[in-house]
Amino acid sequence: MEPMNVSVLGCSGRMGRMLIRAVDENEGARLVGVTEREGHDWAGRDLGTCLGGPERGLKVETDPLEVFARSEAVLDFTTPAASVAHAELAAQARAVHVVGATGHEPGQLEKFTAAARHTAIVRAGNMSLGVNLLAALTRKVAAALDADFDIEIVESHHRMKIDAPSGTALMLGEAAAAGRGVALDAVADCGRDGETGIRARGHIGFAALRGGDVVGEHDVIFAGTGERLILRHIATDRMLFARGAVKAALWARGRKPGEYDMMDVLELGK
Prior knowledge:
The protein is α/β, with parallel strands linked by helices. It contains ten helices and twelve strands.
């Protein structure tokens, strides 16, 4: 089979560069397009020289429509608003849309559902194998332990991260809520300040730490009387997210339109 034609949106950022590297490393994928916003220093220049190497014959474009038109898949770790706009273009082009951006509002998520009627969208708060295994374990443990065990999710990220709780933390919260058979929105406690009163039974708490260059650390704590169970994942290299995104694109090739996540890609079950 011919390599899959893949493009990277927002190519100059830290994740954008890693996505380019991940595509280059994978024999099943071929980089055919990269984008940046209008007015960016890289706009109109050769990607290779932008990255400090020889020319690659691939220009950094500002019009994503043209890039989508020649792509079988696009890798999108941009922003919530941009990824929603890109979903519409993916639907028009019937291109697989792999979304690693997090922090979407409910109304924005509805746009992905609409676009997924026409193409495959793989959207995940985290694209690593380990984190998705953690989510599967979280759901199983939450189902096994009743509300006498309080659930707290603690996450740490670098100082530049702009959303909290992280997409991964929310994914873990969704897994815990699913295990308990409740909706996360009904039991989530994302902020404590001042005199909050006692902890509500059955709630799922979140705490977000930010500092330095932490790639990502997540603990799911099940705290009972006299004992605690802690499930933990620590990421030390962002390339694992980029490689997961390429894996997702290749998995979605030829799939029927719909919304998918990394549990589908890794066949971990729901």
